[in-house]
From TrEMBL:
Keyword Lipid biosynthesis: no
Keywords: Coiled coil, Signal
Pfam families per the UniProt record, alphabetical: YkyA
Source species: Virgibacillus dokdonensis
Listed name of the protein: Cell-wall binding lipoprotein
Cross-referenced InterPro entries: Lipoprot_YkyA-like, YkyA-like_sf
Lineage, opening ranks: Bacteria, Bacillati, Bacillota, Bacilli, Bacillales
Keyword Coiled coil: yes
UniProt feature coiled coil, ranges: 38-122
Signal peptide (UniProt feature, chain positions): 1-25
Length: 225
């Protein structure tokens, strides 16, 4: 019997660039400043993702060790279960920091909406409006992803608490594992939606910069723009 684990893999949100022109306070430059400040504020989110992935791997190893033990080795099971619970708690802490990073980025990005109205070029304005809408959808997707992941963490912690009980019945454990797997299916679906909006936003952002004539170079490009 194994507990199927899934790792959240968010698409790289940052499109690093080098500005070739200086800010002069135009609506285009103001929007750019808010967009890239939001990117900077979201760096904490990226860092926590890496930490969460490492903790998930560690917990998976502990789970496998527990599953290899028999009921006559309860002392070892309890010790490993305690360590696993500690990793769950650490993931909860990382999620909290991740939330803070996203919320700060969201507050900064919201300032973009006010400036979009000042754009004169229709094509750029249309793209900017769609970009704002897509990012708002992305934040909603993150909220759903965040809730789904927290629900999964709660179930995992309950499972390790069950594993520490000497009178645990196989049926009870199986139901809990099924519940966890179902929870992670929701995590995957939410994560797919989040990644989809992230990709769409990055593409619109690139289009916007090109439409307003911003001379930028994106990481991964072979030639400078």
């Amino acid at each position: 019997m194994s507990l199927k684990k899934f790792t959240i893999v968010a698409l790289g949100f940052m499109l690093l660039f080098i500005l070739a022109s200086c800010s002069n306070g135009t609506p285009e430059e103001q929007i750019q400043n808010h967009l890239e400040e939001a990117v900077t504020l979201e760096e904490g989110f990226e860092k926590q993702q890496s930490k969460i992935t490492d903790l998930e791997k560690k917990e998976q190893e502990l789970y496998n060790q527990i599953m290899d033990l028999g009921k006559d080795e309860m002392d070892k099971i309890k010790k490993l279960a305690k360590q696993a619970i500690e990793t769950v708690d650490k993931r909860k802490e990382a999620i909290k920091k991740e939330e803070e990073s996203i919320e700060q980025a969201k507050e900064e990005f919201t300032k973009t909406k006010e400036v979009v109205e000042d754009l004169e070029a229709k094509e750029a304005k249309d793209t900017a409006e769609k970009m704002v809408e897509t990012m708002q959808d992305r934040y909603k997707a993150y909220d759903n992803l965040n809730k789904a992941y927290k629900d999964a963490l709660k179930l995992e912690k309950e499972m390790y608490e069950l594993l520490s009980k000497e009178d645990l019945k196989q049926e009870t454990l199986t139901k809990k594992i099924d519940a966890i797997n179902n929870a992670y299916e929701k995590v995957i679906a939410s994560n797919d939606t989040f990644n989809k909006h992230t990709k769409e936003y990055n593409e619109m952002k690139r289009d916007f910069y090109e439409q307003v004539g911003m001379d930028v170079t994106y990481e991964g490009d072979s030639d400078e723009k």
